[in-house]
Design brief:
The protein has 361 residues and is of the alpha/beta class. It contains eleven helices and 15 strands. A seven-stranded parallel sheet has the order 4-3-2-5-6-7-13, sandwiched between helices. Strands 1-12 form a two-stranded antiparallel ribbon. Helix 1 packs parallel to helix 2 and helix 5 runs parallel beside helix 6. The longest helix is centred in the middle third of the chain and has 20 residues. The protein starts with a strand and ends with a helix. The site of nicotinamide-adenine-dinucleotide has 28 residues, from helix 1, helix 5 and strand 6.
């Protein structure tokens, strides 16, 4: 069943982006500042130290530069998504019309030893967002669309067995994935009960300039340039749908401007809730991804052409929480928005390597 969409556009909107000092959030805000000719963007982030906050400050600097050139207003608020009173105040004072909820504790791996870190942002924080969206509509137009980041990690053990959306996602292999799945069901229930238009995006392995240092391509660049070993999981035998950052941002911007309406294509009542995979729909083998990264690190002048990569690789078994095969179903997003990410790992890793060289100069 396809939804009708309510076209919102970007101008005149009050857009709340959570996690806007993060990798995806900062890229999204910079793009929004370029596109919007009016309206406001509120960036809400607690700049936590899960990875080096200097990188978050650097991204905020890039946003400030873009804000100077933009006709839209920009405001940064430092705060914790799990702070219910603070969130209430943001809804009352800034009256967001579109929300993009990206703030979260990520990583399947980190969740093994730090499950508690996920409760604040991914459970309480997410609840604060949907509850804020609910009350924003008490007698007011309020939030017109809530877009939130889920992850292809939700596919867990059933990835290979179930193709197409909706998949059975009852068997997550990490606690991170379990929190993302819970977001999807909380969101659906609020959308159904209170008629709030919501779109969940199951993003797949997003990478690119100013990315996350805890992910393989970035940590490999850090490790190899300091002559340290990089762990390669499952002996490199993994297939992942790597999504370049600009493609992920393009998908988010397309989705946020089109809220699912409360009717379907046949004019029948529908829950105003949509869920999509965001990825290329094809996978790259991790070994190819790593060899392309090596070539691009050499061509950007980060590592010498005779660098002995093999000496700095530590092949390790896949931990039980790692998905060794990840592929997205792009059909539904393509049908609704005419867009499928297509940047190749060669193009994307080249841009990452060039950025990495400049950032560490
Ligand atoms: N990058 C990927 O490959 C990927 C893949 C699938 C899903 N996602 C999802 O996309 C979203 C953005 O991911 P990212 O890669 O940009 O991560 P990121 O860590 O770079 O960004 C997340 C931001 O959220 C902020 N944050 C965390 N907890 C917070 C809290 N309690 N209050 C306020 N701010 C808080 C962090 O400071 C950080 O700046 C996340 O929800 C993530 O789960 C990312």
């Amino acid at each position: 069943m396809k939804h009708n969409k309510t076209i919102l556009g970007l101008d005149h909107q009050n857009i709340l982006v959570t996690g806007g000092a993060g990798f995806i959030g900062a890229s999204l805000i910079i793009r929004l500042l370029k596109e919007m000719t009016s309206g406001q963007i509120i960036n809400f982030d607690n700049i936590n130290d899960y990875y080096d906050p200097k990188l978050k400050e650097y991204r905020l600097g890039l946003i400030d530069e873009a804000a100077k050139e933009s006709s839209a207003n920009y405001l940064f608020i430092k705060g914790n998504l799990a702070d219910t009173n603070l969130l209430r105040g943001i809804f009352i004072n800034y009256k967001p019309s579109i929300i993009v909820n990206l703030a979260a504790q990520e990583s399947d791996e980190y969740a093994i030893d730090h499950p508690t870190a996920y409760i604040g942002p991914n459970i309480i924080g997410f609840f604060n967002i949907i509850e804020g969206a609910r009350h924003s509509r008490d007698g007011h137009p309020g939030v017109q669309h809530l877009v939130y980041a889920s992850s292809t990690s939700v596919y867990g053990d059933n990835r290979e067995k179930t193709q197409g959306i909706p998949f059975d996602i009852d068997h997550p292999v990490s606690f991170y994935a379990a929190t993302k799945k819970s977001n999807e069901v909380y969101a659906y229930s609020y959308s159904r009960l209170y008629g709030i238009p919501m779109t969940g995006l199951r993003l797949s392995s997003v990478y690119g300039p100013a990315g996350r240092p805890d992910t393989l391509y970035y940590s490999a660049a850090d490790n190899w340039s300091s002559k340290r070993s990089q762990a390669i999981i499952n002996n490199g035998s993994c297939n992942k749908d790597f999504t370049y950052i600009d493609d992920a941002v393009e998908a988010i911007i397309k989705a946020m401007q089109n809220a699912p309406s409360n009717t379907d294509e046949n004019g029948q009542p529908a829950v105003p809730y949509a869920l999509y995979d965001i990825g290329k729909g094809t996978t790259d083998n991790l070994t190819d991804f790593i060899s392309t990264l090596q070539e691009e690190l050499v061509s950007a002048g980060i590592l010498p052409s005779d660098f002995d990569f093999e000496a700095y690789k530590e092949y390790v078994e896949a931990q039980p929480n790692i998905l060794v095969s990840e592929k997205t179903n792009t059909k539904y997003f393509a049908e609704d928005f005419g867009f499928t990410p297509s940047t190749t790992i060669r193009e994307g890793l080249k841009k990452f390597a060039e950025w990495y060289k400049e950032y560490n100069a």
